[in-house]
Amino acid sequence: MKMHDISFLSLRRRKAKTFFLVVGLVIATALVVTLIIVSKSISVSIAKNMDEFGANILVFPQSEELSLNYGGMNISGVSVGGKELRNEDAALIRTIKNKDNISIVSPKLVNVANVEGKNVLIVGINFNDEFRLKKWWKLDGSKPIQRNEIVIGADIKKQLNSGLKKDLKVRDKNYSVSAVLEPTGSQDDNVIFMDLAEAQVLFNKRNDLSLIEISALCYSCPIEEIVKQTSSKLPNAKVTAIRQTIESKMDAMHRFEHFSFGISLVILIISGLIVFANVSASVNDRTREIGIFRAVGFKQTHIIKIILLEVFVASVSAGLIGYVCGLLSSEIIIPIISMSKETAMQNDFNLLLLSTALSITVGFISSIYPAFRASRLDPTIALRSL
Q1: Which letter, b or e, does each residue of 321-351 get, where b requires 16 or more Cβ atoms within 10 Å of its Cβ?
Q2: Angle 243-285/287-295 helices, nearest 10 degrees?
Q3: Which residue in 247, 345, 369, 377 sits closest to 38, CA to CA?
Q4: Residue pLDDT, tens place only, 65-105
Q5: Of residues 97, 51, 348, the one with CA closest to residue 232
Q6: N or C: which end of the chain has fewer CB within 10 A?
């Protein structure tokens, strides 16, 4: 009889202990696989949601004359050295190598105009892009549809004593207030927003832009690489990443990943203790059997191989079953946590290998000492018990 036959027979004879050994490893492996899948899925979901929640890259002209301010950035209000931004530049951003990481491109034209006797900041925007970029915006009224419709900030409403459906004259042209922006606590409260194309015509700056805000999905691509590619497309512009926003996003994702790693480590340690206790109990129950093996000429290495082979078979089975259980569990958990019906359940061969490797590693490490102790049993013990 070969050693692997002895191992398989032992597993079949000790069905209860084999069952608990496999179940312990299956639970650990399934939980780890679930945590990995859930962690990755939630991290991607968080990253995408945060990436789309505001701009994380600014593009503005390279200029020494900085006279206007919008969004916390000084923006040149005049053309300097032929380095102004153009409408075509916004389209070029969509052609970079990592264009799939570009979520929103929102070009703007910033100007100052006298409205009702007061100097007011007028910002030309593409309303559809701006509403996607600033999801926190809330309107009292409706989104502009016509080019002569505008949105005014909460403070502008008070300053100009204006409101919905009232007309405001900008440069001798009347514009209807389509909506009032609810207080944001930002400079947007002091701005009048109008259609970009209309602003370019009104201020005689056809095709000109003051800045471009970009929302880039930086989870799967370093933001520095996107900035570099954008800069190469727009050599006359200055492309800047908003570091504070990016670092906050990455810190949130890393914290979640570290938490998952810590939980996985605890689970594996507990699983290892279960395997250790199970194999130790099995060795104690098999004192007579092991002693007979030693008496008929089995070497210490043979005893170790028999026990470790048993654990190996159980670990491989547990790794495969745990992987399947982990996939099924993540399919249930992800929609609950992310509050979305979409699931990211996919057969990942690398994760299958990882789950099997983890199961085998935990099983082996937890079984080495009991196997070594079993190999050192005195064969006379078995003879005395006969």
Answers
A1: bbbbbbbebbeebbeeebeeeebbeeebeeb
A2: 70
A3: 345
A4: 544 555 544 444 444 344 678 999 999 999 999 888 888 89
A5: 97
A6: N
SS3 state of residue 287: helix
- What the block records as the tokens of 25 is 């490893």
The pLDDT of residue 73:
46
Which phi and psi angles does 211 have, rounded to 5°? -165, 165
Q: Tell me if 89 sits within 8 A of 237, measured CB to CB.
A: yes
C-alpha to C-alpha distance for 326 and 376, rounded to whole angstroms = 39
d(CA 278, CA 297): 27
Asked if 37 contacts 344 with a C-beta cutoff of 8 angstroms, the reply is yes
Residue 261, SS3? helix
What is the per-residue pLDDT for 77? 45
For residue range 173-224, list pLDDT tens digits in order: 999 999 999 998 888 999 999 999 999 999 999 889 989 998 887 665 567 8
pTM of the model: 0.59
Residues 283, 87: Cα–Cα separation, whole Å: 77
